[in-house]
């Protein structure tokens, strides 16, 4: 029972701390065995040799490559010095500007080691090691002699485009001379093949209901025409506005504008005669009421004269 309780307690602790541990994402083309398992670092990995990540803590140090374009001595700060080193630096600063001024010259021993591929983590400069006054870093854009030789050989092996075309042409056993007629035939054939391919694609898209608005319009333009009811509704708006305007003008003119109101009513009547087929019962009743009001206004000025 004690062993079971200890296992349960250990499992509970692992479950609590497992939340903060996540495995790193493996970039494409990278071997997972070159990455240390995060659970193994925390002592929680239970997969053992079946784990796809490495359980060797020295993998990162083995895989890290030295940078030959930066001088490691430039990154040293006072935080890494002890009292003896600090006193030594203070003493050397007195004569530094007179004897050992900083230089940008690259150390020849460093260049030789890089060219011979002897430079590494444990390489020591023969010119005093870390006390060497010259730079232990390649300048930006520097090309090694070995790389330069390979580049020159590659450039010498390259041939121009014209030579490549001539070589390919000489390899062909039989060829047809190109003329304008043959070119136009080839172009027409390619255009027809393209149209057939596009038609097949449009048919497939129409079958799956994935056509765009432009494709729908090109396939059937009648789908984008307003129906008859929409046209009639738009056509009926103008006569109603004209009648309303005529009523307002009649009220504003009063008795003095009776003749003009009668003329307007005659114009409306003439215009409405052309559209009788399109008027409904409500519009006919409204037109009749407007005509009756106009006739009453015409008779009112004549009554006092007759009496």
Automatic annotation (TrEMBL):
One of its GO terms (biological process) is cytoplasmic translation. Residues 31-58, 101-139 form the C3H1-type domain. Residues 151-209 form a coiled coil. The keyword Signal does not apply. Pfam families: DFRP_C. SMART domains: ZnF_C3H1. The keyword Coiled coil applies. Transmembrane segments: none annotated. GO terms for cellular component: cytosol. Residues 232-251 have a biased composition (Basic and acidic residues). Gene3D superfamilies: 6.20.400.10, Zinc finger, CCCH-type. InterPro entries: ZC3H15/TMA46_C (IPR032378), Znf_CCCH (IPR000571), Znf_CCCH_sf (IPR036855). Residues 231-279, 288-307 are annotated as: Disordered. Residues 291-307 have a biased composition (Polar residues). GO terms for molecular function: mRNA binding; zinc ion binding. Residues 252-263 have a biased composition (Low complexity). Residues 264-279 have a biased composition (Acidic residues). Keywords: Coiled coil, Metal-binding, Zinc, Zinc-finger. This is C3H1-type domain-containing protein. It comes from Gossypium gossypioides.
